[in-house]
């Protein structure tokens, strides 16, 4: 289950993260923001709240590891919670726009233009992976190892596990969001109202015009693209390419800020800080 939404393209990037342990203890971790107050909640398989906590500072993005939840707040503060939503540690940082967790470390990107690797204990940065020429909008940890970052500087950068860095330029267009993995094909949203597909070797698959795109999510061979007008475009992977199949009316006139496949055909959808559940 994979989700990524562009920080520059969406108001609430990465506000939904699922955690599924071998089909058991399926849970959804979600941020919702109403009237300026952010709530961090854990939902069970029946889509009901198991536990929740109102955060002392507004937050926009989170990531979840095997035992931790990391939350990035609007002012730059990072908070570390247990899965039971008990606050463990806090630390100051520059404003974070992108956040992704592995079970051993987590990674941040944002207005500092640096991609930084952090440890959970101590709750501190341990390595600068690299940097862009502008804001880091999104980060993606590939299931097979390696990290991908995308930026306002018109580039995606692949940090391989052997330390090698590969840059993928997208001339004259900022890159807002990236998602994989569907047959090792990456999908990104750019400023040119295009949905682009390529491989980690830099081979371009194809592109589609997709006005007002805000976020991406994949489930099996299906890719969903959330739009600013409340619609969702659906793509299917066939013969090494994604092909658009239909457009779904989900939340008319309300922007799709985040998408996440859950279980039994259900999806979580975030819009204007509110969480919705839909079955496709």
Brief sketch in words of this structure:
It is built from no helices and 28 strands. The chain has strands at about 1-5, 15-20, 25-35, 35-45, 50-55, 60-65, 70-75, 80, 85-90, 95-100, 105-110, 115-120, 125-130, 135-140, 145-150, 155-160, 165-170, 175-180, 185-190, 195-200, 205-210, 215-220, 220-225, 230-240, 240-250, 260, 265-270, 275-280. The strands form 7 sheets. The protein has a 5-stranded antiparallel beta sheet with strand order 1-22-23-24-25, with no helix packed on it. A 4-stranded antiparallel beta sheet has the order 2-3-4-5, with no helix packed on it. The protein has a 4-stranded antiparallel beta sheet with strand order 6-7-8-9, with no helix packed on it.
Secondary structure layout plus pairing:
Elements: E1 2-5, E2 16-21, E3 24-34, E4 37-43, E5 49-54, E6 59-64, E7 68-73, E8 78-82, E9 87-91, E10 96-101, E11 105-110, E12 114-119, E13 124-131, E14 136-141, E15 147-151, E16 155-159, E17 165-169, E18 175-182, E19 185-190, E20 194-199, E21 204-209, E22 213-219, E23 222-227, E24 231-238, E25 241-249, E26 258-261, E27 266-271, E28 274-279
Antiparallel strand pairs: 1-22, 2-3, 3-4, 4-5, 6-7, 7-8, 8-9, 10-11, 11-12, 12-13, 14-15, 15-16, 16-17, 18-19, 19-20, 20-21, 22-23, 23-24, 24-25, 26-27, 27-28
What is the H-and-E element order?
EEEEEEEEEEEEEEEEEEEEEEEEEEEE
Widest sheet, order of strands: 1-22-23-24-25
Share of β-strand residues: over 45%
Helix-and-strand structural type: mainly beta
What separation lies between the terminal Cα atoms?
15 Å
- Helix count equals 0
Number of DSSP strand runs: 28
Specify the helix fraction band: under 10%
Mean pLDDT, to the nearest integer, reads 85
Major beta-sheet overview? 5 strands, antiparallel
Low-confidence stretches: 1-11
Global shape: globular
- Specify Rg, calculated over alpha carbons: 17 Å
């Amino acid at each position: 289950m994979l989700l990524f939404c562009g920080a520059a393209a969406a108001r609430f990037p990465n506000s939904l993260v699922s955690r599924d342990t071998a089909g058991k203890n399926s849970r959804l971790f979600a941020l919702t923001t109403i009237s300026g107050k952010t709530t961090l909640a854990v939902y069970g398989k029946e889509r009901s709240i198991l536990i929740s906590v109102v955060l002392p500072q507004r937050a926009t993005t989170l990531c979840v590891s095997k035992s931790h939840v990391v939350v990035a707040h609007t002012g730059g503060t990072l908070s570390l919670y247990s899965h039971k939503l008990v606050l463990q540690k806090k630390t100051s940082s520059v404003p974070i726009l992108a956040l992704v967790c592995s079970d051993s470390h987590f990674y941040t990107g944002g207005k500092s233009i640096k991609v930084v690797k952090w440890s959970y204990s101590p709750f501190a940065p341990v390595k600068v992976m690299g940097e862009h020429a502008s804001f880091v909008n999104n980060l993606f940890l590939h299931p097979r190892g390696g990290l991908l970052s995308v930026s306002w500087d018109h580039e995606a950068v692949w940090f391989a596990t052997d330390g090698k860095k590969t840059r993928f330029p997208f001339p004259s267009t900022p890159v807002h969001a990236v998602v994989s993995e569907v047959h090792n094909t990456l999908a990104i949203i750019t400023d040119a109202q295009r949905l682009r597909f390529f491989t980690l070797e830099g081979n371009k698959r194809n592109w589609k015009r997709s006005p007002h795109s805000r976020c991406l999510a994949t489930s099996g061979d299906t890719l969903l693209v959330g739009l600013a007008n409340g619609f969702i475009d659906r793509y299917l992977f066939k013969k090494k390419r994604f092909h658009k199949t239909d457009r779904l009316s989900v939340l008319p006139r309300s922007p799709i800020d985040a998408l996440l496949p859950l279980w039994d055909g259900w999806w979580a959808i975030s819009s204007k800080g509110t969480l919705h559940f839909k079955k496709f």
